[in-house]
Structures are given as structure tokens and as C-alpha cells.
Amino acid sequence: MKFVRLGFIFLFTFSIHSTPSLGLSAEDQTLFDKTKLKLLNRGDMIVRTLERIGNQTIELEAFVALETELKMAGRIFSDFAQFETWAMPGINDRPSGGKYYVRILEIKSDAKDRITMKLALTLPVFKRNVICPFKLSTRTERDVFTFRADSIAQEGSIVHYARGTMKFFQDSSNPHRLWVYLKGQVNLKHWILYETFPLPYIARETGDRIMIVMDNYLKEESRIRSQSSSLAKGNGAKP
Asked: pLDDT by residue for the chain (239 residues), tens digit each?
């Protein structure tokens, strides 16, 4: 009986602390576990790191909890042509005042799966306007929505490549909350820019920008829901 009791205690403890398999790909399962560890039971928040990882590459990793639903996230982030409309408001308004080192001047939809960002860099050792075209893609697989942006090579660019990924996972304890994993990498052509890049300042700017975009996303979601409700009422249906 002693071994039975010990076995029961082990299984009970394991069931509480382990992460159940969601049938995800190996990569998604690893990222889900990592994101869950950062965000479980911690409310609305953002956790981020920005660091030099070698080979003239700077990497961002962030984790965000967001009160939304997977279907809506897929709808909004898949509509590339509308990015400038909802994502840009307030994007350069620094909460503490002053100006950002990196200002986003424009987001323009060029084609079905492409956008171009125009940036103004005002770094201590480098000041320049930069044009960054990106190819975008999305997919939904096993209740995970993935958004990807990959830079398109162009002559005269200061980067070899820039790429970003966002993965939206269902919060395992709240059906109306998503956990968002973000990863971005920029590989710079010039070593002096890599070495002098003011990481602490850019990290704060990045955190501000992520929260501005997520707040704008929630406003866009609210607008869509309100519009859908008005249309439903106009057609005599229940909202």
C-alpha cells in the first residue's frame, strides 16, 4: 500500500506541474512551454530581452499576455493591407517624452504579401532614413497562429537580413487570453553599428512599441466587433 500511495502522489504532482502535449510541432511545443513559463498566472504583461548574439546579429525575444481570441488575431494580422491604418497611431509617441532613436515613418502595403517600412534612424553614430521591404506570411495550425516577416534583400541596405516571428498560443488557464511569443533578428552589415548599437535604450523603445502595437490591436478588435454588432442589429439579427 505504501508504494501505491507514493505512486498516486507522484502522478498527482506530475499532473499539476507538467505541460500537457497539445499535439503541436516540436518547435511550437518548445516555444509554448517557454512562453507559459514566462506568463502563466502573471496577468497582462510583457517580458523582453534584446542582446548581441554574435555574427553582427541583434536578437529580440518578447512574451506578451493579451486579452483576445485566436480567430480575431488571425483575422487582423492576416490583413496586411490594413496595417498602416491600425498599427501606426501613436507609434512614435514616447510615453516619457522626447524622441525615439528609431522612428517609424511609414508602413505601406505594396502587394498581397508585402509591405515596406520607412524608418528614421537617429543613433549616436548613425543617422539615416532606411527603407525596409518585407515579405509577410501567416498560418494557423493546431490552435497556433503564426505571423512571419522576412526582409527582402536590396542594394545599399545596412542589414544583411531582418526577420520576425509572432506566435499566438491559447492561455491554458483562460480561454479569452492569448500568450504571444515574439522573436526578431537583425543582421547588420557594419560591425561598428553592431558594436555601438545602444541596446538598453533600444530595448526600452522596443518594449514601448510592442505595447503600443498591442494596444492598437485591441482598439482595432473593438472597432471590428462594434461594426459587426451594428451590422447584425441593422439586419435584425442578434449581436
From this structure: 444 444 433 333 333 344 444 588 999 999 999 999 999 877 767 888 999 999 999 999 999 999 999 999 999 999 999 999 999 999 999 888 888 889 999 999 988 899 999 999 887 777 889 999 999 999 999 889 999 999 999 888 889 999 999 999 999 888 889 999 999 999 999 888 888 888 888 888 888 999 999 999 999 999 999 987 776 666 655 54
Cα distance between residue 160 and residue 61, in whole Å: 19
Q: Are 58 and 50 in contact (CB under 8 A)?
A: yes
Any idea how long the chain is? 239
Domains of the chain: 24-228 (3.30.530.20)
**Cell numbers placing 202:** 533600444
Q: Is 138 exposed, middle or buried (0-12, 13-18, 19+ CB in 10 A)?
A: middle
- Asked if 70 and 168 touch (Cβ cutoff 8 Å), the reply is yes
Task: With beta carbons less than 8 A apart as the criterion, state whether 162 and 56 touch.
Answer: no
DSSP state of 81: G
